[in-house]
Specification:
Order of helices and strands: EEHHHEEEHEHEEHHEHE
Largest sheet: 10 strands, mixed
Shape: globular
Helix content: 25-40%
Oligomer: single chain
CATH topology: Aminopeptidase
Number of strands: 10
Length: 212
């Protein structure tokens, strides 16, 4: 599956990608902002991939042109409540603070809210990572009441709040790259994905059934 939108490509994680993702995830600049900071082995990475390769998890490689820079995700989706957990990390340090990281998050959130029908996303952010805290607030994320003295604060955002608070960011990105989302995917893997993509508005989205 591949999504081209706002100048970035989001490519659904495949088993062939997991070693590159593991090396990114184990990098010090990524690990220091994660709640789980243990170095991940190749075997643990394989087990993790097989546990998330399903319709409850959307993990995407972020690609700019031919350069792969990190991963953005909507995971642990509950289709009954239409909720999930969002996250991103940039593995290539030269892209830290890049607008492409912002556009990747916008692309993922637009896809999950507009196409897949998700109503609420949650995120957990290191309180010391001030740029991430500020960015999430710009997207409309609100802090939950803390339940512990953890270094990590839980946030949530609803679909309505996101489209209200992120309006300026989305408009700026769409002025640069257009507002049409191109989605390429292989039909018949998951019925829910087929149903969601069959229902999207053709004037805003280009949907192609293709093998990836």
């Amino acid at each position: 599956m591949r999504i081209d939108y706002l100048g970035v490509s989001l490519i659904r994680l495949c088993e062939e990608d997991i070693e590159e993702v593991r090396l990114w995830r184990n990098a010090e600049h990524v690990r220091m902002n994660m709640e789980y900071q243990v170095l991940i082995s190749q075997e643990a990475q394989r087990k993790w991939f097989h546990s998330i390769n399903n319709i409850q998890h959307f993990h995407f490689i972020i690609q700019i042109g031919h350069q792969r820079i990190g991963m953005v995700s909507a995971a642990r989706i509950n289709w009954n409540t239409r909720t999930g957990d969002a996250g991103i990390f940039i593995g290539e340090q030269s892209y830290l603070g890049s607008p492409h990281a912002v556009f990747a998050v916008l692309a993922m959130m637009d896809f999950m809210f507009e196409v897949m029908g998700i109503e609420r996303l949650e995120a957990k952010v290191n309180r010391l990572n001030r740029p991430a805290v500020f960015f999430n607030q710009k997207l409309g994320y609100q802090a939950k009441e803390p339940t512990s003295q953890s270094l990590f604060q839980e946030y949530y955002v609803t679909k309505a709040t996101y489209f209200q608070r992120a309006k300026a960011l989305r408009r700026a990105a769409q002025q640069l790259y257009g507002d049409c989302m191109k989605i390429q995917y292989r039909k018949g893997i998951w019925n829910r994905l087929d149903q969601c993509l069959a229902a999207v508005h053709t004037e805003m989205y280009t949907v192609q059934c293709k093998t990836y």
